[in-house]
Design goal:
transmembrane helix; about 1450 residues; transmembrane; Translocation/assembly module TamB domain-containing protein; membrane; TamB_C; 16 helices
Amino acid sequence: MLVLSIPAVQTRLGKSATNWVNDQYKTNINIEKVGLQFNGDVEIKGVLIRDYKKDTLISATELNTSIVNFRNLYNGKLNFADIKLEDLVFNIVTYKDETDTNLDVFVARFDDDNPRPEKSTFLLSSSDVTISNGTFNFINYNKETPEILNFHGINLNGTNFVIDGSDVKTRINTMQFVDSRGLRLENLTSNFSYTLSQMRFDDLNLKTPESYLQGDLVFSYNRADFKAFEDKVKVEANFTEGSVLLDELNVFYNEFGINQRADFSTKLSGTLNNLTAENLKLETSRNTKIYGTLNFKNLFNTADNNFAMQGNFENLSSNYKDLKALLPNVLGESIPSIFDKLGNFKVVGNTNITTQKIKANLEISTSLGYVNSNLEMSNIDNIDYASYKGNIILDEFNLGKMLDDPNLGSTSLNVDVDGVGFKKENLKTQLKGDIYSINYNKYNYQDIVVNGQYKQSKFNGELVSKDKNLQLEFNGLADLSKDVRTFDFVAKVDYANLKALNFYNRDEQSEFKGIVDMKMTANNIDDAVGSINFKNTVYINENDTYTFKDFAISSEFIEDERFIKVNSPEIVEGQLKGNFKFNDLELLFENSLKSIYTNYVPNKIEGNQYVDFNFKIYNKIIEVFLPELEVGANTFIKGRVESNEKAFKLTFKSPKIKLLDYFADAIEVQVDNNNPLFNTYVEVDSVYTKHYSVSKFNLINVTLNDTLFMRSEFKGGKRNDDFYNLSFYHTINKDNQSVVGFKKSDVTFKGNKWYVNEEKNKLNKVIFDRDFKDFKIEELVMNHENEEIKLAGIIKDSTYKDIKLNFKDVDLNKIVPDFDGLSLAGNINGKLDVLQQNGSYLPNSSIIIDDLEVNDTFLGSFDAKIAGNATLSSYVVDAKIKDDDTNSFTAKGNVNVAADNASIDVDLDFNKFNLKILNPFLEGVLSDIRGDVFGKAKVIGSLDKPNFNGQLNIDNGGLGVPYLNVDYAFQDDASVTLKNQSFIFNTINITDTKEASKGVLDGSISHTNFSKWKLDLNLETQRLLVLDTKETEESLYYGTGFIGGSASIFGPTESLSINVIGETKKGTVFKIPLNDNESFGDNSIIHFLSPEEKKAKQEGVVLENETDSGLDLNFELDVTEDAEIEILIDKTSGSTIKGRGVGGLLIEINTNNKFNMYGDFVVYEGVYNFFYGGVIQKKFIVEPYTSSLAWNGKPLDAIINIKAKYLTRANPSPLLDNPINRSIPVELTLALTDRLERPEIAYQFDFPTTSSTIKSELDYRLDTNEEKESQALFLIATGAFSSGLNDINFTGTLTERLNGLVNNLLSSGDGKFDIGVNFEAGTNNPEYQTDNRVGLTLQTKISDRVLINGKVGVPVGGLGDSVIAGDVQVDFLLNEEGTLTAKVFNRENSIRNFGEEIGYTQGVGISYSVSFDTFGELMRKIFNPKKEEENEGIISEDETPEKKPENNSPFPQNMTIKEEE
């Protein structure tokens, strides 16, 4: 044992053992030194295992372990405890022209097929293996790059390490290494196993500095497969979770973008060059998502153009930039750059991508819309020029944004395509399919079929549009791709709405149809040859329908002369003939017109050009394109223009020309530059404008010595009494500026003759440049007797003006034109100089207007002096208006106009200044503005927007509101504060000048430099007149309105709003006429709908015509019983519904005919007065509390629910089987429902005093609505019932009308004594007969306890004239409360058979009335009334009688509502 402990002996024994293994298994294993301890620990140094090429397979500088069982060691089973290896080198090499690796050969030596006599029992095991600083090389010398893997710095710890023959397995607890390409593995754990056919990494956890991976990984192979590892070794993996920085993968596959991270899970299968990622769920750091199954071919194949990828995408969400960043070389080169316009997209479908082709069947949702693409693309290495073929479906896809065409918009289509290119300049494709919708030029076309080829601005094929606004069939060629453009097509337009298509927006309606046949070639407009023919053309606008049967334009060259002919008997006829260019025509005319001046430098024109023209113009074409312009028949223009300017000739004649509101009659213009008598002659019979009219206008000119002299005479003015006799000239000076000067001329204006240049000097002229920017006025002088006006100055564009205007004894009324609503008078002297410099206007003036009057209001003398300092940087202002006694207005102060700080500081003083001069400025909104102003104010601050501060008081002030026909007077000494640019009214009491009702006004009126006026006023009142209008033909409402509450008046004066919140007060009478008659000659019944109105009508929408001007009134009212509302059913006959009640109404009115009402109105008392033909007059009493009106918009669209009762007497015999000979009381109730303007009417009869037998028979006869309606109308018209048409008799109506007139005379006003005379006409026919009867009705109070009501009559004109008939009832009140009553009555029998005398029924009775809430209360009041009275009269000492609450109920005060107990 001592010998064995000697190191030399141990080394010798170790070498013996390795020699035995080498001999046994034909291996090459060497050990430098062996150390063996008694406890079994082994230390081996210098381990070297060579492969069959005697190169290093495995080596280690030191190996430490422990032998567990020496017997097993002896038997070839190496059982070790822990193994520690240092500096391990492991080289797996496939040598040149070999298929097996050196490891395969080494392991094979231990296989059963090794030629040895017994089976291998080699076994090596260890409980723990640790490798420090190891190196692993995987080399294949059969490849271009032999080194496949090179790991160094390997540190590994594994447990349960076993080598069983050729099988290896272990649990890798930790492993680190550095790849030669830079990848560093921080840790790897796995259950590793290796066999001759498989390498497994189960429960794999891998971590690098930036990535991690979890899952299972299996390599399956035959040993011969390692020669083609990427192509034959099969990979199966299930990665449940992984996060990879793609930069780290670039060491293996350098196609990923930088700084890209991918989180994923997937199942891998296949070889590295045919790898399938199944159920891939990948999300990148740039929000790209890839869900699906992908197959990659030749990922690790270095050959060119053999990469392929097939994808089945469940969800590919990304955008062009993210995909290109992910795989910049693979995807960046294969996806067209135009896809960048798609934005974020989501793809579902299948793709097959190679380096040359792409096959894709995809559904793509993008930010531009939806795409369904089934395409095959080739030549994708130059993707923008790639070819493609297949089908494309677009749904609401913004094609214009993708193609950078602003005219294109959203598109939906289904087309087959076969073409090349994706950019506009190289696009060439065959299109066939349906375009469901395409938005072009802001219009959405629909239902288009296309079959043709589009190539670089060239279309050849068919296009059929069935759009509702474009029904078109196009067939032919439109080639814009070449220098010489070719058109050869026929377009049949069945209908084109040019307005809707946004091709022509000038007309409100623009519709076209016809046939266009175009055959033309042209490089430009000057060499166009061919023809355009329009056939059966129709154009429709809002004015008319225009039909053009034929319209042809042709262009041809005959020798060197060009002919352009236009032939349409309805548009224009004529031709252009000559040698000319279109672009030079304007210059030719300019040269010809200006050639009259010898110093004019003509425009340069190439060659010797000329053109003869002769056209006859028809008004129809003018109406189409310029509807505001109208020319008369036989309008023509002809002439010649050429490079030789002197040969210019032109003749224009037209019987009339109308432009908008301007009209000229009998116009003739002649121009002849060679005519020695005149060059131009213009004659116009008359010219009419809104502001000024001219007649008998003529102008003639001639050129002498480089000056164009002109003479013109014409009349003007509203009455044609102004006369103009002008003599002037035009020339061009040496500076090439135009000069227009006046010789002695005269103008008679408003009956006064003014002379221009009366002294005949060389001044009185205006000099200006050809751009009309710079003007110089050299003392224009006008004189009238001793009155004189002088004007001089300089104007340079819009930045500088220096105008000097002088007046001498000028009557203001003679020079101011007539303006509606404004008249001025006075005598002007002084000067007015205006200098505009640095953006500011700098006046310097001294003006005196004596006897100044504005609208016949005498103001006095106006004296204004404005003087500037030497540098014109500061001005002193001194202005005043002085009447005979005092200065009513003064303004004194300074104006500083320094460039950077223009300011004003002026004091204003008012002393009985008359406000009437404000009326013209607020006309139409306010009227009769009046008052005398006292006080002081200061104008200070920036000159651009100065502030006005001060305090003013107004005496005798007031104003009117014409739209409401009310006028208000202000309290004396009304206070108004000026603050900045506002007038603030300080609680001013106002009184209406008609009814003396009162209110309180406050608020403000603001302005911007005395323009853009705005009101913000508030009004509070207990009772104020706010409406006092009379009926007119156009009245939507009228009446008298008193309001209690508040009102606000706000907004700009051109769009003023008045809002009122309050309740109606006593005296309010509001009338609404129901009048739908049109006045004679009213053309407003015809209205052409705009497209917006037409669309709204089709959709059932009502368009409100909004306007920004006028007066807007809004009344939010609580209507009380003080207000009477009357609806005039028929103004002609006088039929009305009049009543009082309560309700809440919102009324909206403006001056643009807006009148809306919202709310409900409940009638408390009312009468429906029915009149017809001046004979029929019936009064219906409206049932209170149940009758109502409800408004929700237009007043006449109100919902009416009114019941009105008509009381009369009539004989019902026509309705009875057994006639009776007397009239009975009849109650006819009309129920008006539905719309106020067209109500539904229902009729109901009641016979209150008739016996049940007769009443039942009458109800049976009046069972149907038709019978009720016919009997009701007959009863109203004749006063009787009808049994047929023969019964028509108007005596009942006439007698009822007569009775009403007499009773009004006999009745007392207090109701204590009412007496009436009644005449009842009898009926005489074979079936029944009643006598005429004169009756007397009496209603009176003999005392407070005796009441008499009666009606007695005497038959007249019959057999029983001496018989007195009638009803009498006498009521006696037997106790103080009036609850116990005795009655005595005598009543005429309701039924009297033919031939019988009048019968009566008499009676006497006592009635007792008790009011009670409960049955117990009833018993107490009947059996113990005293105790009940005592209980009611007891009030506890702690209680005091409550004050009766104010009746705020909308119901009358005599109505009570029982409260809940």
